[in-house]
Amino acid sequence: MDVIPAIDLLDGRCVRLYQGDYNQSQVFSDNPVEVAQQWVKQGAPRLHLVDLDGAKAGHPVNTQTIAAIVQAIDVPVQVGGGLRDRASVASLLDLGVRQVILGTVAVEQPDLVAQLCQEFPGKIVVGIDARDGKVATRGWLETSTVEAIALAQQMADVGVAAIIYTDIHRDGTLTGPNRDALRDLATAVTIPVIASGGMSSVSDLMSLLALEPLGVTGAIVGRALYTGDISLKEAVRAVGSGRWQDVPPNFGSSAFA
After folding, report:
1. CATH of the domain at 189
2. Which pLDDT belongs to residue 22?
3. Distance between alpha carbon 147 and the CA centroid of its chain, in Å?
4. What is the mean pLDDT of the chain?
5. What percent of the chain clears pLDDT 90, i.e. is strictly above it?
6. Which of 45, 76, 223, 238 could, after both became Cys, cross-link 98 (CB 3.0–4.6 A)?
7. How many domains does the chain have?
8. Catalytic residue among 2, 51, 53, 129
9. Is the pLDDT of residue 211 over 70?
10. Which domain range does residue 97 map to?
């Protein structure tokens, strides 16, 4: 299972939010490039970047910082936040980003997601961020009536490469992942699921190994890395980390293994 450090970008700095609240942000570094290099040095197989300004604005904002990170490291980068049209997706892929993460458009423009999956096979991931099982959109500022599992199944059908599932109530809280929700989601689809939100210890990561046979193939870790509650080196040793491989258009749950 991959352990994937998160770098959340707000005003060009590396921050963490509490339960997705922009008013409860904590700055961890003014130099996200150095942070990225630190995680790679400690064994990160890939990085998860979120453009928080972009998520709120509806278009990428921290593009220069993302480009600088991609150029400074030698592992793949996946990026989400504000990607709501083809041009935004293409521009990030042109920068060398390996996969882009779509959120709001999966709810509001599913046909666009299907088109992008056809044009950029293996490059499109959908982030499903849920409150009480319902999908949140627009930088978590709005909550839809769409059920997370129903959206995951719809996106799997149109050809997305993977689902990143975040329980917003757990995000940034260090209270552990929502294993029941992850189990239900992974059981409902046949594409890889990446867990996000609440990781507080290596034990939390190890507890997800029981879900790996169901398709939970990675875990994104944020605040716990920055506070020191999780050592990335220890986590990688504990749960294993396969190196990235390009994802073909059609594949099973072993694609991220």
Report:
1. 3.20.20.70
2. 67
3. 19
4. 86
5. 66
6. 76
7. 1
8. 129
9. yes
10. 2-239
